[in-house]
């Protein structure tokens, strides 16, 4: 009987030892899983929009470094973020194919930021929505969040909201500077999704409501081979301002140089643009300071008062002359994912999406977006997403509106 008792006792000890060993093995495995969380970036890293993708990448990489160096995800025992990337290429088809490969090859990726060009974002989000994976985007097109999708979060005001909200401010700026009402305007832009959304409300009564007549309406498919005929129309009719909405640097350069050649450049006619492409460092290099001077550009995000340290760090670490909205927004997007991970404590796609949907903060990631709040409406649009206006002054695009966060005062270009 004593022998049997000893055997039972030994069996229990062995079982306990095996359980302890099992726990010891399982614990490091669990910790190992918590040490890394994948977040994605899908953007054009080749083709005519590759430079914008590069700037998005630099912003995301810098945020990842800052988050990891700051202790990682504290609710997950200091788990580190790891950025994985996919090249959206130079067409909507390539962007969609890249998204399909991306989702299939990275099943543990919790979410992504992308895809810069609105046309690409529309294609990519068809894929990410089916995969129930969150995607944060600065792309402007109204269509992106008008399809009833549940996993798409648009941090920018839509292009339509930008034109409706910012154009009156610009018109008032012109009136204050000249004492005269802007009466005629031309449109010169491409037919990608964001410019189409931006110009739609202007064509459909927005300009007329402000007392402005549309006298030239020239739309092209990028890339543009020759800008002569478009610019000739602008020169012959002589509108008082030009709504200028291309989406890549080479087209902008071609049009601006042709305008200068025909006597319309160097501040002779006010230029009102829309979108980050018109704040690219490449424009300064390829077009020159004089041709850019005074151009006003409506954007969804840009560096502002209070971000001086972030701007200085970005310049030092990347070698870039300034921080564009592409870099700033992808930087902020990584902090949104961090906020969601801190709340859930687990790298689960659906739970991360739920955390983003219910997020409402005026701190942390909110510091990197105009309006200073991260909260998404049921359609995925950011509540209170602010509009910003930048202007090229002395060879650099600086924030001039809203005035409380502006880094410079606006100047109305002289004819």
Please give a quick description of this structure.
The chain has 415 residues and is α/β, with parallel strands linked by helices. The chain has helices spanning 2-34, 50-69, 92-105, 118-130, 159-178, 193-209, 228-237, 249-261, 281-286, 289-292, 308-318, 325-344, 349-357, and strands spanning 36-43, 80-87, 111-114, 134-137, 152-154, 184-190, 213-220, 242-245, 271-274, 296-299, 360-361, 374-375, 388-393, 396-401.
Would you give an account of this structure?
The longest helix is centred in the N-terminal third of the chain and has 33 residues, at 2-34. By secondary structure, this protein is of the alpha/beta class. Mean pLDDT is 90; it is low at 1-33. The chain has helices at residues 2-34, 50-69, 92-105, 118-130, 159-178, 193-209, 228-237, 249-261, 281-286, 289-292, 308-318, 325-344, 349-357, and strands spanning 36-43, 80-87, 111-114, 134-137, 152-154, 184-190, 213-220, 242-245, 271-274, 296-299, 360-361, 374-375, 388-393, 396-401. Helix 5 crosses helix 6 (193-209) and helix 12 crosses helix 13. Strand 3 (111-114), helix 4 and strand 4 form a beta-alpha-beta unit. Helices cover 46% and strands 17% of the residues. It is built from 13 helices and 14 strands. The strands form three sheets. A seven-stranded mixed β-sheet has the order 7-6-8-9-10-13-14, with helices on both faces. The chain has a five-stranded parallel β-sheet with strand order 2-1-3-4-5, with helices on both faces. It folds into two domains: 35-157 and 306-384, 3-Layer(aba) Sandwich (Rossmann fold); 160-299 and 389-405, Response regulator (Rossmann fold), CATH 3.40.50.
């Amino acid at each position: 009987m004593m022998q049997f008792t000893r055997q039972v006792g030994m069996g229990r000890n062995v079982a306990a030892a095996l359980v302890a060993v099992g726990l010891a093995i399982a614990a490091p495995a669990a910790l190992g899983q918590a040490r890394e969380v994948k977040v994605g970036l899908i953007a054009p890293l080749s083709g005519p929009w590759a430079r914008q993708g590069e700037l998005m990448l630099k912003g995301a990489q810098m945020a990842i470094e800052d988050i990891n160096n700051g202790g990682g995800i504290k609710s997950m025992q200091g788990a580190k973020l790891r950025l994985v990337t996919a090249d959206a290429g130079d067409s909507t088809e390539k962007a969609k194919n890249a998204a399909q490969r991306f989702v299939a090859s990275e099943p543990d990726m919790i979410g992504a930021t992308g895809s810069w060009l609105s046309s690409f974002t529309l294609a990519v989000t068809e894929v990410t929505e089916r995969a129930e994976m969150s995607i944060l985007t600065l792309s402007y097109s109204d269509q992106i969040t008008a399809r009833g999708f549940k996993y798409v979060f648009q941090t920018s005001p839509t292009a339509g909201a930008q034109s409706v909200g910012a154009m009156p401010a610009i018109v008032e700026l012109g009136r204050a500077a000249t004492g005269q009402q802007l009466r005629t305007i031309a449109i010169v832009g491409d037919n990608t999704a964001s410019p189409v959304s931006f110009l739609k409300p202007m064509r459909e009564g927005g300009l007329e409501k402000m007392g402005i007549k549309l006298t030239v309406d020239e739309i092209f498919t990028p890339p543009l081979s020759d800008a002569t005929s478009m610019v000739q129309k602008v020169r012959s009719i002589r509108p008082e301002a030009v709504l200028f909405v291309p989406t890549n640097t080479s087209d902008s350069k071609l049009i601006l140089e042709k305008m200068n050649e025909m006597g319309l450049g160097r501040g002779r006619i006010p230029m009102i643009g829309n979108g980050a492409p018109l704040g690219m460092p490449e424009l300064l290099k390829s077009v020159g300071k004089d041709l850019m001077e005074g151009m006003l550009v409506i954007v969804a995000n840009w560096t502002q008062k209070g971000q001086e340290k972030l701007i200085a760090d970005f310049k030092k670490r990347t070698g870039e002359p300034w921080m564009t909205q592409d870099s700033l927004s992808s930087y902020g997007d990584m902090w949104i994912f961090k906020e969601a991970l801190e709340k859930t404590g687990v790298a689960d796609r659906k739970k991360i999406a739920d955390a983003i949907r219910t997020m409402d903060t005026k701190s942390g990631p909110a510091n990197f977006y105009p309006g200073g709040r991260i909260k998404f409406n049921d359609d995925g649009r950011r509540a209170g997403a602010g509009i910003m206006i930048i202007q090229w002054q002395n060879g650099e695009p600086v924030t001039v509106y809203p005035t409380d966060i502006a880094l410079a005062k606006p100047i109305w270009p002289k004819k």
